[in-house]
Amino acid sequence: MHEDERLLRSGPGIGPVCARLLSAEMPELGSRKAGQAAAMAPIAEASGALRGRRMIAGGRRDLRQALVQAARAASLHNPL
After folding, report:
1. Which of 6, 7, 37, 53 has the lowest tally of Cβ within 10 angstroms?
2. Which residue, among 39, 71, 68, has the nearest Cα to 55 in the 3D structure?
3. What pLDDT was estimated at residue 45?
4. Residues 6 or more apart from 69 whose CB is under 8 A from it?
């Protein structure tokens, strides 16, 4: 296991699959634009036809889904 993966796994909710995906798919990890690249700072798109609904554009879908799953796991197993 690489040092980056070991550091990622120290966070609550981040398991081996998520850590491997993050380290493989995000070479920019550690930079200021990493959150935007993973669409954690999404661009909301709205049109007149959507009315009240918004769609998320930008970023990488697979990373966003992995991070959402990690956040769910962390919130279930590490309540504040």
Report:
1. 53
2. 39
3. 62
4. 18
**What is the SS3 assignment for 27?**
coil
Of 69, 10, 59, 62, nearest in space to 36 by CA: 59
Residues near 54 by Cβ (< 8 Å), separated by ≥ 6?
44, 45, 46
Alpha helices in 10-60 (DSSP H): 16-25, 34-37
In 3D space, the residue among 58, 70, 80 whose CA is nearest the CA of residue 20 turns out to be: 70
Tell me how far apart the alpha carbons of residues 72 and 65 are, in angstroms, rounded to a whole number.
11
Predicted confidence (pLDDT) per residue in 18-34, tens digit: 999 888 888 777 776 66
pLDDT digits (tens, 9 = 90+) for 33-66: 666 665 555 566 666 666 666 666 666 778 888 8
Per-residue pLDDT, 40: 58
